[in-house]
Sequence to fold (338 residues):
Amino acid sequence: MRHSTDVRGRPLGALPFAAQVLRGQAQVTFLPSAAAGAVFCVALFAAGWDYGLYGLVGTAVGTATARLLGAAPDRVTTGLEGFNACLTALCFAVFLGAGHLSTAVLALAGCVVVTVVTAAAVNLLAVWDLPSLTLPYCVLASAMTIAAPGFERVWHHGEALASLTHAATGPTTLQLADLARAFFADFAEIFFMPQWYVGAVLLVGLFVASRRAGFVACLGSAVGIGSAWALGAPAAQIADGTMGYNSVLVALALCGVFLPVRAATLAYAVVGAASATAVSAAMSALLAPSGGHTFTWPFVLTTLAFLAAAKSFSRLRTPEPDPEPEPAGAVAGSVNRA
Fold:
């Protein structure tokens, strides 16, 4: 009987499943690091034991499904088959109510389905040499939030999420406390969590895996906050992290993950992060009338556009010597996140 092997030729079954699951959680921010995944797990349990459980079990189900279906061993090993399932499970818990049996059943099914959607997205986008990012989760999450109010055994909140868009209102002046909360909430909102302290723990996880990734993520958060303020977003929306979390992900993707780290790509990532702020408002206006949610659509659309464009810019693509060694399995290991 032929056994699957990882990139080093070791039997896949010999790799600790727990490490693959933890790497899957860390891959939400492009980090194939079990240590970072463990810190992320602590952050989610700090937000609530139910959210921590949904995130952990969801990642495990996605990873196990990929293994059972025979996904590429290197993708399973580095956690690339788990992060979309992690976000899918958390999305179901947040929008359908974590305490309902129907939510748990649907979340488990969703984690299986998103693994299949991931394979489809990877194969389709490979034609243009582009990564799938969180596109599979966004597709499934949008379908769920739009469809769920139509089923009484699934929807437990009374009124649907659909609403007409309206002009922004409220103060736009940011106080020091707003800035501090916004900075950390930008990290927490990647996982749907509103608590600033959850974001602080997640940021620690980023630095545990890679100082470079931590600094780039901090820059992305700052750019998201600054661009939202400059455009006149209400201070409350900036402070709760909903205007900046996509900017964090865009910055990480465009400087150090899919493009080499250098001054040009850092500037490119800053422009991308700022663009994601505007795209966030556009996606919110587009999806609100149908009951959808922005999720990480702004990150996906902005990153794919900037990566497609980067193929025409030689200064962004040509590798340069890396003067700063990174820990084994840090950001560079997630470049194959297709």
